[in-house]
Amino acid sequence: MPRMWWVVGVVVLAAIFSAYLGWTAQRVERLHTRAQSAERALDAHLMRRAAAAAVVAEQAETVELYAAARLALDAEPGERESAENDLTRQLQAVTLDPADPAARTLIATSRRVVLARQVHTDLVRDALSARRRLFVRLLRLARHHPRPEYFDIVEPFLPEAPLIPAVPVPAAPAEDVLPAQAL
After folding, report:
1. Which of 38, 40, 59, 138 is deepest in the core (most CB within 10 A)?
2. What is the DSSP letter of 61?
3. Vertex 170, ends 164 and 172: CA angle to 5°?
């Protein structure tokens, strides 16, 4: 009878270990998928920002900004970081009028780029952290996924968007308010 308890114990430990490995494999898969999605979202936001910068450059007749925007739109994956950094430097040199709709669009897309980059950086960090775990390396659980890479660009400094005035809320009629003694 004592041998049976050893067998049961080994089977339980094997089941727990295999469940842990399955959970770890799913986590690695999920983190890499999310990092790839964040990379695609960041790329889309960078394209929108470059297109909005080209529109602002055309309106302001700024040749340098337009050239930087076109380079960012046409950049190959290996040249993308430097092209986006050049665009950011050109944007910082231009004075934007927050009342202009094209400038507001550029400001909004630049803020989305900052947010998308932060999300991408967090997910890449988490995926790389998962890849460094002992069982992930030993069992090569991340072999089907390319190693995620950080996207390092300069954070743009843009003016604040104008605040939209709030609509005043009408006060409640006096008869709807209960006197303090009724409570």
Report:
1. 38
2. T
3. 150
Q: What are the tokens at 134?
A: 């002992």
Cβ neighbors of 133 (< 8 A, separation 6 or more) are 24
Length of the chain as a residue count: 183
pLDDT (0 to 100) of residue 62: 85
**pTM listed for this prediction:** 0.75
Contact 53, 65 (CB under 8 A): yes
CA dist., res. 126 & res. 122, Å (int): 6
Angle between helices 2-60 and 101-131 (to 10 degrees): 160
Is the model's pLDDT at 19 over the cut of 60?
A: yes
pLDDT tens digits along 60-114: 888 898 999 999 999 888 888 899 999 988 888 888 877 888 888 888 898 899 9
Among candidate residues 85, 94, 45, 36, the one with its CA nearest the CA of residue 65 = 94
Tokens standing for 174?
A: 């006096």
**Chain centre distance of CA 25:** 24
Q: Is residue 34's pLDDT more than 90?
A: yes
Is residue 137 classed as helix, strand or coil in its secondary structure? helix
Quick one: CA torsion of 51, 56, 57, 60, rounded to 10 degrees? Answer: 170
C-alpha separations of 12 from 5, 16, 19, 26, 153 in Å: 10, 6, 10, 21, 49
